[in-house]
Design a protein that fits this description.
The chain is an alpha/beta fold. It has four domains: about 5-130, PAS domain (Beta-Lactamase, 2-Layer Sandwich); about 130-335, P-loop containing nucleotide triphosphate hydrolases (Rossmann fold, 3-Layer(aba) Sandwich), CATH 3.40.50; about 355-430, Helicase, Ruva Protein, domain 3, CATH 1.10.8.60; about 435-490, Homeodomain-like (Arc Repressor Mutant, subunit A). The chain contains 20 helices and twelve strands. It has a five-stranded antiparallel beta sheet. Strands 7-8-11-6-12 form a five-stranded parallel beta sheet. The protein is globular. InterPro entries: AAA+_ATPase, AAA_lid_NorR, Homeodomain-like_sf, HTH_Fis, P-loop_NTPase, PAS, PAS-like_dom_sf, PAS_fold.
Length: about 500
């Protein structure tokens, strides 16, 4: 058996740690760690891996991987695949049955190693998702039962799993009202829709509005966050599975089949795995879905609505969105404005939320104070309408019945945020007052660069040096701000 001392060495043979200390370190990890040598024999197996697999270390150490895990094959074992092709696998799902007959599902990162003696090895870091997979399958089963029961009672599914219509999108700002009118018109057709907007701008509300204004209103509306689940789980959830496609798999329809006749919302589609994007593109092009492990294609009649919280150009630059898929999902596209660009709607939204909370909690608050309203109008609202709603709800819980919400009753951290931003606005006003006359300018370009540098530094300060938030404050793309940071040699 290869000793741990043989693993922890530098290229020139100098020991970094002795085996006992190394064993203490690996056993303290929250992830399972499993290393096999070039013959597939286990040479390291930490305590967490033992807990995940339901096996004692002595049942695995110094044994061939197929002896300890007889349900695995060369094709299904990520460790053996890495040994053979020397490739690194990220976030690969693996389901197997251990020697005790227990079914285990893990998400693995597997990569090749070279031991101190020059021989090949493979290392795997594992995270247990057995319960997560069971939860996903339970949710899928419940959805199936729900829609099947509805179909037995009626030819139409009247409870379509939505909460909002376009009437719930509150605002008087002209551009925002025009967006809603366009959304109502677009709802009458079946073209794919892409909704772009920052977090908290109401993308899912807008998507539900489209569904409920469409001829598909009596059919299901199913939403899935593409960033919420590992790739393999998301693939089986979206497209369904056939029995035998992997250990423990049953024949189950995916969300595309469950949304038959209705709408599926793919939230944060730019977080969808690149290979799954290709599979989704095929569904959109052909109107057919193939389950994981299945051979036949199943016709689906669905409308796809997608959302993104970044611009398409940024997604292309970062390699998170396929351009061919983008053209398919954005036949109709809407960009919801951030709250800082519709500040005249702040009092309208505040009154709307207060009215709702009054009704919900049986109270009678009289709105917000003029002082607080002015602070809100000068605030940059990184969390947009959702942040405003939470702030109103917070004030509602701290305010006496019959009074109005004022700045002083808000928690200190909220007061600090509102005051900090107001101070920033005041500084910007002062900068405008300090603009020199043409006679005093030595160089217009130099002066404009100086102003630009100051505003960038101020935005970074407001955003706690978060480049994405600072870019949003300046109404720039992240790439544009990074270019300017480099141009002006501004350190973050």
């Amino acid at each position: 058996m290869v000793k741990l001392d043989d693993i922890i060495m530098t290229d020139d043979g100098e020991k970094l740690l002795n085996g006992e200390i190394w064993q203490q370190i690996v056993n303290s990890l929250d992830e399972g760690m499993h290393i096999v040598d070039q013959r597939g024999r286990t040479i390291l197996y930490n305590q967490r891996a033992s807990e995940l697999d339901g096996l004692k270390p002595e049942e695995v150490l110094d044994k061939n991987i197929f002896e300890a895990f007889p349900s695995l094959t060369y094709e299904s074992s990520t460790l053996m695949q890495t040994l053979n092709n020397r490739k690194t696998y990220n976030n690969e799902q693996q389901t197997f049955v251990n020697k005790k007959g227990q079914q285990i599902t893990t998400i693995n990162k597997t990569f090749p190693l070279v031991l101190a003696d020059g021989s090949k090895a493979a290392m795997e870091i594992s995270r247990d998702i057995t319960h997560l997979q069971e939860m996903v399958e339970n949710v899928s089963d419940l959805r199936n039962k729900f829609y099947n029961q509805k179909k037995l009672k009626s030819n139409q599914v009247k409870d379509n799993n939505t909460t909002y219509t376009f009437k719930d999108l509150i605002g008087e700002e002209k551009h925002f009202k025009n967006l809603i009118k366009s959304g109502i018109r677009a709802a009458q057709n079946d073209s794919s829709v892409l909704i772009i907007g920052e977090t908290g701008t109401g993308k899912e509300l807008f998507a539900q509005g489209i569904h409920n204004a469409s001829p598909r209103v009596d059919k299901p509306f199913i939403a899935q966050n593409c960033a919420a689940l590992p790739r393999n789980l998301l693939e089986s959830l979206l497209f369904g599975t056939e029995k035998g496609s992997f250990t423990g798999a049953h024949s189950k329809p995916g969300l595309f089949e469950q949304a038959e006749g209705g709408t599926i919302l793919l939230d944060e589609i730019n977080s969808l795995d690149y290979d799954l994007q290709a599979k989704l593109l095929r569904v959109l092009q052909e109107g057919k879905v193939r389950r994981v492990g299945g051979q036949k294609e199943i016709d689906v009649d669905i409308r796809v609505i997608s959302t993104m919280n970044q611009s398409p150009d940024q997604a292309f630059a970062e390699g998170t969105l396929r351009q061919d898929l983008f053209y398919r999902i954005s036949v109709v596209s809407f960009e919801l404005p951030p709250l800082r660009k519709r500040k005249d709607d702040i009092p309208v939204l505040a009154d709307y939320f207060i009215s709702n909370f009054n009704q919900k909690f049986g109270q009678n608050l009289n709105g917000i104070s003029e002082q607080l309203l002015n602070k809100m109008k000068n605030y940059h609202w990184p969390g947009n309408v959702r942040e405003l709603k939470h702030m109103i709800e917070c004030g509602f819980n701290l305010c006496q019945d019959g009074s109005c919400i004022d700045l002083e009753i808000l928690p200190e951290y909220l007061q600090k945020k509102l005051n900090q931003n107001s101070f920033s606005e005041k500084k910007k006003e002062n900068k405008l007052e300090e603009i020199p006359s043409v006679k005093d300018l030595s160089s217009l370009s130099d002066y404009l660069e100086q102003i630009e540098v100051e505003l960038i530094q101020e935005a970074l300060e407001l955003a706690d040096n978060n480049i994405t938030k600072a870019a949003r404050e300046l109404d720039l793309s992240r790439q544009s701000l990074q270019y300017k940071l480099k141009k002006y040699n501004i350190e973050v």
